[in-house]
Amino acid sequence: MGLPPRSLKVLYLFPLLAFILLCLRWFTPQLSNLVQKNTEPRLAYATLLLPDTSSNPSRNTDIYFLSTRILNYQLLHDKRTRTTRAIPFLVLVTSDIPPWKCDHLKREGATIVRVEKLNVDWIKPGHERWRNVMIKLRLFELLSYDRILFLDADTFLFKSLDGVFADPAAQTQETLQQASIEPDEGPLPESYVFGTTSEVTTASHPYPPVPMGYFNAGFFIMSPSLKLFRYYLSLFNNTDRFDTRYPEQNLLNYAHREDRNMPWRRLNYTWNINLPLLRDVEMGVASVHAKLWTKGNELQPIQQELQDTWRVKREEMEVWTGFGSGRM
Questions:
Q1: Residue 71: pLDDT above 90?
Q2: N or C: which end of the chain has fewer CB within 10 A?
Q3: Residue 189: is the preceding peptide bond cis (ω within 30°)?
Q4: pTM to 2 decimal places
Q5: Using CA atoms, how far apart are residues 275 and 285, in angstroms rounded to an integer?
Q6: What whole-number distance in Å separates Cα of residue 150 and Cα of residue 138?
Q7: For the chain, which domains are there?
């Protein structure tokens, strides 16, 4: 006597149920990983590559292009300093950067971001090379990223910078209501991210450096925001509010004054220092902002040991890439 039809249906369902359970067992962790990836912050490093302003530009004269390549190597490839979180390195370029430079950087792993210049005819920069540094503000239009660490092209790493994104100053801040807003300036965003380190004005500084109420715009972390970008642009119409000798630096210092509604936040001093000394490196600073390929000058000398470190890293980078940009 055979099994009743109802029992047969149950037996037929067992393999199907087993298959469904196996699928769920496999799919659940995959779904969890997918959700986790989608909720992780989208981070980036970035710099700005400006045109070669030397008297006779050639493939062998652009020291900032070479410095950008070294920075790219350190951020993405050098085992001593590279990202362990697959954080991309963005290089902002305008239409006057030769295509071969963009192609070269892409081959070495950088992400090229083409941007338009801003109207800066009204500024009076301390050096002509600084005329277009306002392009840094284009970072605030890159809405595909949650936070970006900007580094000037003459930044040199001694440690990985991935940890800077966890610094308290790198987190979202609520815009304050502690000061009135000038009627001829644009509205402020409800929240923002702007963290950086205090300026250092002399090579004879102590370490840790003495905190100042002014920062250098060669190293800062921010969060893209069109509302904040438009606020910055509104300041272009109020040129008496800040000194344009250091164009973007003084605009940002004005916008993020510590006694106003969007005060800048202080990153830990160990992340970066301007006008570095070998002692700063020995005491653990992660990166330095200086033209280490030069001797500096009488007021701001570059110690020979730091110059040598830069040259060694350059040679290491060119061995790694298998091709250089020519000796300089």
A1: yes
A2: N
A3: no
A4: 0.87
A5: 12
A6: 11
A7: 41-321 (3.90.550.10)
Query: What is the DSSP code (8-state) at residue 301?
Result: B
Amino acid sitting at position 116: E
Instruction: For 129-140, write each residue's pLDDT tens digit.
Output: 899 999 999 999
The pLDDT assigned to 175 comes to 98
Listed range (119-123, 208-212, 222-226) with the worst mean pLDDT: 119-123
pLDDT score for 12? 58
Contact, 235 vs 182, CB < 8 A?
A: no
Cβ–Cβ under 8 Å, residues 320 and 82: no
DSSP, res 109: T
Mean pLDDT of 78-89: 98
Nearest to 39 by CA among 47, 48, 31: 31
User: Which H or E element spans position 289?
Assistant: strand 287-289
Query: Following CA atoms 81, 86, 87, 88 in sequence, which dihedral angle do they give, to the nearest 10 degrees?
Result: 100
